Amino acid sequence: MNKKFLTLALSLALALSLTACGDSKTSAPAEDGNSENGDAAETVTLKVAASPTPHAEILEQVKPILAEQGIDLVITEYGDYVVPNTAVEEGDEDANYFQHTPYLDQFNEENGTHLVSVGKIHYEPMGVYGGKTSSLENLPDGATVAVPNDATNEARALQLLAAQGLIEIDTAAGLKATPNDITSNPKNLEFTELEAAMIPNTLDEFDLNVINSNYALQAGLNPAEDALASEDADSEAAQTFANIIAVKEGNEENPAVVALVEALHSDAIQDFINTTYNGSVLPID
Hints:
Distance between the termini: 84 Å
CATH superfamily of the largest domain: Periplasmic binding protein-like II
Order of helices and strands: HHEHEHEHEEEHEEEEHHEHEHHE
CATH class of the largest domain: Alpha Beta
Number of helices: 11
Shape: globular
CATH topology of the largest domain: D-Maltodextrin-Binding Protein, domain 2
Largest sheet: 6 strands, mixed
Oligomer: single chain
Strand order of the largest sheet: 2-1-3-12-4-13
Number of strands: 13
């Protein structure tokens, strides 16, 4: 009986010892930081909302750069200009990449959101594209023109048309110009306001269409070749309408966000933008 009791006691002690060793191995971090458990603890996930073209395409190039820093960049594509902002405001996304500062400011004002820019990344010259009419010189009297229906992009579109001598705008209107601010319209142009993303789908319904370059690219248009006129890359618009990385106020110093902006400003990414888009998208230092 004593021998059986001693054997049972030794077996129980051995089992407890092995269990303790197993628990210690699972919970202890790897000394060199290269074990699977060590990597999992160090990896940070950064969720960014983006328009498909060119924003998500550019972000895909940033993924390996951030991965080297232990940041897993998760990109979610959105086809509109509203949800990417509400998603960041509500915390579903950490940042977004699709808009310029005037649009961001307008969105905050109208929706009570608290989004801020953490860096200018690139500029997309807005362009005028033909539809029923294939040139500005042959534009008929009473021609129809499709323009974005959000305030900042509509004003930008009107200023671009004014730069071509098609209309004149009250100088006091600036980036808040609407068709009501047109002071001279010799061709009697008729304007239709549409959601920016929809305009490339209705090209043949209007004589002219003023389109944001990201939506032009998504529709298979080449802004550098197909646009009848576009904003001057050296103009004030290049800075005013630069596309930005936006976050919710208070997250400006998030290390992963800072790393994202730095990566987007790297030579590798700026070279990618220049060679891929041939002037349709221009990097900003």
